[in-house]
From TrEMBL:
Name the UniProt record assigns to this protein: Competence protein ComG
Amino acid sequence: MNNPEMNMKFMQIAMKHLPEGKKFLDEKGIELNMEDLQPMLELLLNVMSEAYELGKDHASDESN
């Protein structure tokens, strides 16, 4: 899926939860700056996109 609007919504969700993830890493002694976090954010966006598509396919299958 390459839907810019959906990607923006996924990014907003990721940014909402970023402080929680950063706190977890800090407590583990793992120091990361935003540049370091960028690949992880992209991975998270890919996961959310796949989960969205899976849910969409599942909903479509159930409506048939």
